[in-house]
Amino acid sequence: MEKVYSNSLKGARNIGATIEKYLNEIGVFSLTDLAQMTPTQAYQNICKLHPEKTFSVCYYLYSLQGALLDLHWDELPDRLKRELREQVGK
Known about the structure:
DNA polymerase, domain 1, TfoX_C, TfoX-like, TfoX/Sxy family DNA transformation protein
């Protein structure tokens, strides 16, 4: 069964106002949008849009994945964290 996501990022775990703003800038307005783009691609798009900033992998990338899994970013399994870092080359 496919997971049904809410229509809004507001109230999603790990998604505060700043992350929501960055996601909106890249065309992500819901968890469904994020799932379709993937957290890895969303993180990379945010980094490309703001090359002058440093976006922490643990806070941004893990937070995006955690939002989809409804887990705090620090609760992601180590294996998944490792896979995410590999996908973005960090």
